[in-house]
Write a structure and sequence with these properties.
It is built from 15 helices and seven strands. It has helices at residues 18-37, 42-57, 71-79, 91-105, 121-130, 132-152, 157-169, 198-202, 210-217, 234-248, 271-283, 287-302, 324-330, 341-347, 386-395, and strands at residues 205-208, 224-228, 254-259, 305-309, 335-339, 370-375, 406-411. The chain has a seven-stranded mixed beta sheet, with helices on both faces. It starts with 17 loop residues before the first helix and ends with a strand. It catalyses: beta-D-fructose 1-phosphate + H2O = D-fructose + phosphate; beta-D-fructose 6-phosphate = dihydroxyacetone + D-glyceraldehyde 3-phosphate.
C-alpha cells in the first residue's frame, strides 16, 4: 500500500470534469464506433447501442458467463457495485468494465463466428498505416545508432534519451515530432531527418528524470527491464525501437513486455499486436523497417525479448493490489517502465491525490525501480511543483487532459 492515506477515487458524477465527460460522451461514442467499424450481428449491435444509451444515467449490468478466464474474477469485482450507476462507481472501474462488457456483448470469448475478433482492430491497423512515414524515419535512425555502436563500441547516451522521449510522446503520430532538416549541406532527401526535435518538446515535460534513467541504464547494473506496455500503433513502434536499441547495444540482457490478454481501452497492445507490428514493418518493403523487425523477431526467438500477458493488466485493480506471483516476478527486474496514462492512473489508484504529493510515497509498494512515461490525459497527477502547475494552467487550461504535456518520473 502507499505510505499515505488514500484519498477518494475519481467518479463520473463529478460535474464539469473530464471524468464525467468520458462516461457520458466518450464511452458511448466508442461503443457506437464499434458498431460502425465491424460487421457484427443486429443482436450484438442492438446490445452495444443499449450500452451506449445506459452509460449516461443507467446502472451497471451483470456480466454474462462467457466462459472466459476472468469471468469469476469480474463477478467478484462487481459485488462491490451492485445496483450502482455507471456515473457513481470509481471511474477506472467503470472504464475497465465497459471494455470488458464490450467483449462479452461481441462474443469475443464464445466459440463461433465472433470468437477472438478484436472490435478495435480497424483503428489499430489504421494507426500503423497513418504513421508509416514516421515509422520509417525512426527505424532508419535506430539502425544508424545500432550500426554506430557495432562500429565504435560506445553507448550513444543522446540516442538513449531521445528514444525515451519517443516512448513518452509516441501517441503523437504526426511529423511535428521531427526536426527540420539542417545539417552539413547534405541534401534533405537523403539527410538524417529522423532527428527528434528535443528542444521544442522539453518545455512540455513537466517532470523530466530522463537523465536519471539514462544513468541507471548505462551503469551496467540493470540486466533486465520490464515494460508495462500501453498502446499499439506508432506508440508500440516507439517502444519496440527503444527495446531494440537497449538489446542491440547490450545495455541489458533481457526485456519483458507485459501486454494485455484481450482488447481493452481501444488501442491497448496485446501479444498479437506485437506480431502484427513486426509483420507490418516487414510488409512495408522498406529495408530500414525490415531490418529492425528482423532484429526484434530474432530477440523473441532467442528469449531476449519475452512477450507476456496477464489478466491483472485488464482488471480494475490498483497496482498495489497486484497478485503476489506477479509482484514476485517483477522482483527480477532492474527497471520497471510504466507506459501511458491508464497505467499511471493505476499506479496512483486513480484517486484525488494532491498534485504536489511525492510520487515515491505512493508507489513505495513496487518491488523495483520504476520510471513512468506518461502523457497527461486525465485529471490525476502527482509529483509536480506548485509553481509549474500554476504556470502551465495559465497557458493551457486543458493541460491535464489534452495529451500535450508529459512526465518522465523516476522512483529509485
Amino acid at each position: 500500500m502507499p505510505k499515505l492515506p488514500l484519498p477518494p477515487a475519481l467518479v463520473g458524477s463529478e460535474l464539469g470534469t473530464f471524468t464525467q465527460y468520458t462516461v457520458t460522451q466518450r464511452m458511448p461514442a466508442i461503443a457506437r464506433r464499434v458498431v460502425g467499424e465491424n460487421d457484427f450481428s443486429p443482436e450484438i449491435n442492438s446490445r452495444l447501442e443499449n450500452l451506449a444509451t445506459e452509460l449516461q444515467l443507467g446502472y451497471l449490468v451483470p456480466l454474462e458467463n462467457d466462459n472466459s478466464t476472468d469471468f469469476s474474477a469480474w463477478n467478484n469485482y462487481l459485488q462491490t457495485y451492485n445496483g450502482q450507476r455507471w456515473l457513481d462507481v470509481p471511474w477506472f472501474f467503470a472504464e475497465t468494465y465497459f471494455y470488458r462488457l464490450i467483449l462479452e456483448i461481441t462474443h469475443y470469448f464464445r466459440p463461433g463466428r465472433w470468437q477472438g475478433i478484436d472490435p478495435f482492430q480497424l483503428q489499430k491497423s489504421q494507426g500503423l498505416e497513418a504513421s508509416l512515414d514516421s515509422i520509417i524515419l525512426l527505424c532508419s535512425q535506430v539502425n544508424k545508432w545500432v550500426d554506430d555502436w557495432q562500429t565504435e563500441g560506445e553507448i550513444n547516451q543522446t540516442a538513449l534519451i531521445t528514444l525515451l522521449y519517443f516512448a513518452l510522446w509516441g501517441n503523437r503520430v504526426d511529423l511535428s515530432l521531427w526536426s527540420a532538416f539542417e545539417s552539413d549541406g547534405v541534401p534533405p532527401s537523403v539527410a538524417d531527418r529522423s532527428r527528434f526535435d528535443v528542444e521544442s518538446q522539453l518545455g512540455n515535460i513537466l517532470v523530466n528524470d530522463a537523465a536519471q534513467v539514462r544513468d541507471l541504464l548505462t551503469s551496467g547494473e540493470v540486466k533486465r527491464i520490464d515494460f508495462i506496455v500501453d498502446n499499439a500503433g506508432f506508440e508500440l513502434v516507439c517502444d519496440l525501437c527503444l527495446v531494440d536499441f537497449l538489446l542491440s547495444s547490450k545495455l541489458v540482457n533481457q526485456i519483458y513486455l507485459h501486454l494485455k490478454p484481450h482488447p481493452t481501452f481501444v488501442s491497448d497492445a496485446m501479444i498479437k499486436d506485437v506480431y502484427d507490428t513486426t509483420s507490418f514493418l516487414v510488409a512495408s518493403s522498406n529495408q530500414q523497417a525490415i531490418s529492425l523487425a528482423q532484429r526484434l523477431e530474432s530477440y523473441i526467438m532467442s528469449g531476449c525479448l519475452v512477450l507476456s500477458e496477464d489478466y491483472f493488466w485488464t482488471s480494475p485493480l490498483a497496482f498495489w493490489e497486484m497478485p503476489k506471483y506477479l509482484k514476485d516476478e517483477l522482483t527480477n527486474t532492474g527497471l520497471l517502465v510504466v507506459k501511458g496514462d491508464a497505467n499511471y492512473r493505476r499506479l496512483l489508484g486513480d484517486r484525488h491525490w494532491q498534485i504536489t504529493t511525492n510520487i515515491a510515497d505512493i508507489v513505495c509498494y513496487l518491488p523495483a525501480p520504476m520510471v513512468a512515461l506518461r502523457t497527461l490525459k486525465s485529471e490525476v497527477a502527482v509529483g509536480l511543483k506548485s509553481e509549474v502547475v500554476e504556470e502551465v494552467a495559465k497557458s493551457d487550461p486543458s493541460w491535464l487532459t489534452n495529451g500535450q504535456w508529459g512526465v518522465i518520473q523516476f522512483v529509485a
